[in-house]
Write a structure and sequence with these properties.
The complex is a heterodimer of chains A (about 270) and B (about 180). Chain A is built from 12 helices and 12 strands. In chain A, strand 2 (about 30), helix 2 and strand 3 form a beta-alpha-beta unit. Helix content of chain A is about 35%, strand content about 20%. Chain A has helices spanning about 15-25, 35-40, 80-85, 85-90, 90-100, 105-110, 110-120, 125-130, 145-150, 215-225, 230, 250-269, and strands at about 5-10, 30, 50-55, 65, 70-75, 135-140, 140-145, 165-170, 175-180, 190-195, 200-205, 215. Chain B is an alpha+beta fold and about 180 residues long. Chain B folds into 2 domains: about 5-80, Ubiquitin-like (UB roll), CATH 3.10.20.30; about 85-155, DNA polymerase, domain 1. In chain B, about 30% of the residues lie in helices and about 15% in strands. Chain B is built from 6 helices and 5 strands, in the order E-E-H-E-E-E-H-H-H-H-H. Chain B has helices at about 25-30, 85-95, 105-115, 125-130, 140-155, 170, and strands spanning about 5-10, 10-20, 50-55, 55-60, 70-75. The longest helix of chain B has 16 residues, at about 140-155. Chain B is globular, with a radius of gyration of 16 Å. Classes of the chains: A alpha+beta (about 270), B alpha+beta (about 180). The interface of A and B includes residues 1, 7, 35 and 79 of A. The complex binds flavin-adenine dinucleotide and FE2/S2 (inorganic) cluster (2 copies). Flavin-adenine dinucleotide (FAD) sits at the interface of chains A and B.
Chain lengths: ~270, ~180
């Protein structure tokens, strides 16, 4: 279908973008890679009055390590994350996730900032951001990831607030992300991410609730010295995942346990 | 309000006024008149609309024409040279990589990018490179064969044409 009409403005810098978003009001939206927004607009599930295109704002596509943080510009695309030597050294789990987002064409356009802002519970990077305590740096300040993913597609971003970059801790230890899906290019039915960091394990789950989730009971069990298999049995504790056409809630809880065990065992191998 | 778009398609520079909501695929088909690029779905999944934008394989149903302002675009019509098919076009023909042909332009454009990045891909690399394209007819086996054959012929010929902007893609990218 053809999207509803909107006004289009291409921002030259973020000051201009936030000023325009302020003037245009809450029905205006940021356009980055367009790979979540345009599909919604085509189905007319989204009908923004205006789009402020930040796709060409300079300086938002950089990747660098700054002390013990990996700083990634909001406009860095999936394909660039996947092949970046800096990311592969500083946070290989992020590069591996990026290589499995959507398909070749999606990875050529979609951006890190777009996935974070969209806050789809099936999105892959939000899981990593939550479990590793990433910071979402915006035109208005900074949000810790644990306060950012509030509900389905819901974040504290103001209508005129734009993400500049996301910073992750450097973590190059054992890690693994397993995305369970029916076709390789699909979204995760459930995803389980594990990362060893500061001597402990961080465990995250994709698509097991309205936001990304941390498997805290399983993390605690590992910290108490339980085996990986024992700890993984607690991965679904406290979760009430959604039921949909692809999986029931119970099946998702089962997947959370099985995938967490596999991810831990493969990371440690 | 109409927006001005200047871009190059298959080597031809164009300038047009478009509504911002015009999808790139509709611009290519209806404004530029190049109907080889197809629309096969409404959910950004089938890849029939794949074209090269500054060397990247892109689903043109999932971009607005205004976002391509300044870009260099290659469509299926831009691959043949002097009446001679591109090695991928020839290989899809020779290996029966198509039946109805609806998906074929998208598969070929995605394959152009795949071979530009990975001139001699393994079967798994071909499958991964083409995961964004769906075919309802062939069962994919002959598509895989076609890409393998094209890869062999292109390597033997010493790096054959990759369709205008395909090589040196990232450097020429406009939007970051
Ligand atoms: C076929 C297909 C398969 C996909 N598979 C996956 C998958 O497996 N895993 C996955 O994680 N994603 C997947 N995606 C989604 C894809 O990763 C999108 O690129 C991503 O969700 C959004 O990024 P974008 O740059 O395209 O954002 P856009 O679509 O441009 O924007 C999305 C939303 O975020 C807002 N926004 C964007 N950037 C900013 C910013 N800097 N500051 C503030 N707000 C902003 C926009 O206003 C909009 O509301 C898939 C998409 C498609 C079409
Ligand atoms: S028309 Fe199906 S992905 Fe573009
Ligand atoms: S040949 Fe018919 S859809 Fe691929």
């Amino acid at each position: 279908m053809i999207p509803a009409s909107f006004d289009y403005r291409r921002a030259h810098d973020l000051d201009e973008a936030t000023r325009w978003l302020g003037e245009l009001g809450p029905e205006a939206k940021v356009l980055a890679g367009g790979h979540s927004l345009i599909p919604l607009m085509r189905l007319r599930l989204a009908q923004p009055s205006a789009l402020v295109d930040i796709g060409r704002v300079p300086g938002l596509d950089t990747i660098r390590v700054d002390g013990d943080r990996l700083r990634i510009g909001a406009l860095v695309r999936h394909a660039a994350l996947a092949r970046s030597e800096v990311v592969r050294r500083a946070l290989p789990l992020l590069a591996e996730m990026a290589a499995e987002v959507g398909d070749q064409q999606v990875r050529a356009r979609g951006t890190l900032g777009g996935v974070i802002a969209h806050a789809d519970p099936a999105g892959d990077y939000p899981t990593l951001a939550l479990m590793l305590d990433a910071e979402i740096v915006t035109t208005h300040g900074s949000h810790p990831a644990r306060d950012f993913f509030q509900h389905l597609f819901t974040t504290p971003l103001q209508p005129d607030e734009v993400i500049r970059e996301v910073t992750f801790p450097v973590a190059a230890g054992p890690h693994r992300y397993i995305k369970f899906r029916r076709r390789r290019c699909d979204w995760a039915i459930v995803g389980a991410a594990v990362q060893q960091s500061d001597g402990g394990w961080r465990l995250g789950l994709t698509n097991c609730g309205p936001t990304p989730m941390r498997a805290r009971a399983a993390e605690a069990a590992l910290a108490e010295g339980r085996t990986m298999a024992e700890a993984a049995l607690q991965a679904a504790e406290g979760l009430t995942p959604p039921s949909d056409l692809r999986a029931s809630s119970d099946y998702r809880r089962h997947l959370a346990r099985v995938l967490t065990r596999r991810a831990l065992e493969q990371a440690a191998a | 309000m109409a927006e001005r778009v200047r871009l190059t398609i298959n080597g031809v520079a164009r300038e047009d006024l478009v509504e911002p909501r015009t999808l790139l695929v509709h611009y290519i088909r209806e404004v530029a008149g190049l109907t080889g690029t197809h629309v096969g779905c409404d959910t950004s999944q089938c890849g029939a609309c794949t074209v090269l934008v500054d060397g990247d394989a892109v689903k043109s149903c999932t971009a607005f024409a205004v976002q391509a302002d300044g870009a260099t675009i290659t469509t299926i019509e831009g691959l043949a040279r002097d009446g001679e098919l591109h090695p991928l076009q020839q290989a899809f023909w020779d290996e029966h990589g198509l039946q109805c042909g609806y998906c074929t332009p998208g598969f070929i454009m995605a394959s152009v990018k795949l071979l530009a990045d990975t001139p001699e891909p393994s079967d798994d690399e071909i499958r991964i490179g083409l995961e964004g394209n769906l075919c309802r007819c062939t069962g994919y086996v002959n598509i895989l064969k076609a890409v393998r054959t094209a890869s062999r012929r292109m390597t033997e010929a010493g790096g054959a044409p990759t369709g205008g902007a395909a090589a040196g893609s990232a450097a020429a990218r406009t939007a970051g």
